[in-house]
Amino acid sequence: MESLIGLVNRIQRACTALGDYGGGDNAFSSLWDALPSVAVVGGQSSGKSSVLESIVGRDFLPRGSGIVTRRPLVLQLHKTDDGQQEYAEFGHLPRRRFTDFAVVRKEISDETDRITGKTKQISPVPIHLSIYSPNVVNLTLIDLPGLTKVAVDGQSETIVEDIENMVRTYVEKPNCIILAVSPANQDIATSDAIKLAREVDPTGERTFGVLTKLDLMDKGTNALDVLEGRAYRLQHPWVGIVNRSQADINKNVDMIYARRKEREYFATSPDYGHLASKMGSEYLAKLLSKHLEQFIKARIPSITSLINKSIDELESEMDHLGRPIAVDSGAQLYTILELCRAFDKIFKEHLDGGRPGGDRIYGVFDNQLPAALRKLPFDRYLSVQNVRKVVSEADGYQPHLIAPEQGYRRLIEGALNYFRGPAEASVDAVHFVLKELVRKSIGECQELKRFPSLQSTIAAASNEALEKFRDEGKKTVVRLVDMESSYLTVDFFRKLPQEMENQKGGKPEASAAVDRYGEYHFRRIGSNVSSYVNMVSDTLRNTIPKAVVYCQVKEAKQSLLNYFYTQIGKKEGKALAELLDEDPALMERRMQCAKRLELYKKARDEIDSVAWVR
């Protein structure tokens, strides 16, 4: 069962190395939160540090007044064979062994200052310390900043709340065992540790009570009411501890000797002698180790379930982020072409209706073009005054004898020129829609998000192609307008005399009596031209969309990246690699994801290998 505690230690160290140390809002900190641990909680000067040093059997913690523990210390104890040298290792200094525990104390202070500075502020980032010794049991303890009631000079006004919130992030977790340390020479009802433990663990199932400073109680008093569970009952037995005195600390009294003195104290005490076998730091360490072993084993199924779920999520994330790119040119070219095809597929889906956006092109033909045609200023252009002016200018020095054919032609050609504007505007509008669909398609292509350089290159190549399609579209629609001007529909005008006769009751001579230079004559010319222009307008309303679709939309679907393909095929090594230059943030995200995936798989394999052999 000892290997299970060691396994939890290794997983916790690996989590911290990845920046996951519990209490976070990311999905991966849940593994740390799921691992059973023992959090040491107590008020300042409650004797927390002395309890930890008694369990370890070494002086290694910084001492002083005020807040000394300003970062969580994850203390992982590993029992070694008798006779082996004791040493310590820090998670932030892998492969470096410390055999001098005075240096360990200094490194804890220096590492604390590295994050918090030489101030009295606190940080939730833990320090990982592993101690290997024949004088310890396999155990993991988390030393937390001491609870306080008042902020002192140099501390934030919120320090009291900040410390309590940090401690709560640990002890609120259902997998956290609470080691509540209280001094025996103070009323247990005022214990900060017990107060907090009662709030987060009202049944006392996760709480172990520790009474320190039993030897400092007033003469004639004892703590039997607490130790025997009468003053405050917990599900687990209370354990009394006798710490070294300040004089012993000043004299650097050996911790092994201090343990022996502690055993003698309880064995010879008239008050606590009957409890001697269940008192002292050695008993506390064994009790916690045994309970932690059972705690871990009971939670292996839920931990394994969480790990398997996390592995599935991480593998899905890796698929989403994409695998690392090959280094040879052939594979890089293949990757680029595949990414282009993925983009092109999404672009076509937008045009064909599988995704929104293509309907905006139809909106240009069904709404924008007809509206533009209706707004053309034909009423002003074909007013009586303008018709008279144009017809007179077309006649020159010789007025027309019967019908002003040159006037008709000049009026019609001038009117048809107005169609150029709506025709070209339709091309521009569709061009804008296509550019927007290119932008959306690049944004929606998950595979392309890895490569900002390739995104920009594809966008530039697509827009360059769309510009060519727009130029061709404009030439085509302008040709449609010019064709209407270059050859007028004769049948339309051949019907005019007959229609006039029908309007006059079938008497041609009546029309001859009309003044060819009167207002009615020019109004009739304007009306005839307007009818012809309306006929052309109806034609163009149908042919302009056909030309736009043929020159722009169809070409975009079929050959948007054709020129890009010919150019990319000529590139080699370095140029291809530059296109596949990923976003550094995404590369970092993939690397972290891969590390976490490796951690979870390794944790699963190790749990499977040791969980059921005990």
Please give the order of strands in the largest beta sheet: 4-3-5-2-6-1-7-8-9
State the major sheet.
9 strands, mixed
CATH superfamily of the largest domain: P-loop containing nucleotide triphosphate hydrolases
Low-confidence stretches: 23-28, 508-514
Write down the overall geometry: elongated
- Beta-strand content estimate: 5-15%
Describe the 3D structure.
The protein is of the alpha/beta class and 614 residues long. It has two domains: 38-318, Rossmann fold (3-Layer(aba) Sandwich), CATH 3.40.50.300; 329-500 and 515-572, Dynamin, middle domain (Four Helix Bundle (Hemerythrin (Met), subunit A)). Helix content is 59%, strand content 8%. It contains 23 helices and nine strands. It has helices spanning 2-17, 29-34, 48-56, 101-116, 159-171, 192-200, 224-227, 246-250, 255-268, 281-321, 329-352, 359-374, 378-381, 384-395, 405-417, 420-444, 452-486, 490-503, 508-512, 519-559, 562-568, 573-579, 584-610, and strands at 37-42, 73-79, 87-90, 93-98, 127-133, 139-143, 176-183, 207-212, 239-240. A nine-stranded mixed sheet has the order 4-3-5-2-6-1-7-8-9, with helices on both faces. It is elongated. The N and C termini lie close together (6 Å).
Notable traits:
614 residues; Rossmann fold; Four Helix Bundle (Hemerythrin (Met), subunit A); 9-stranded mixed beta sheet
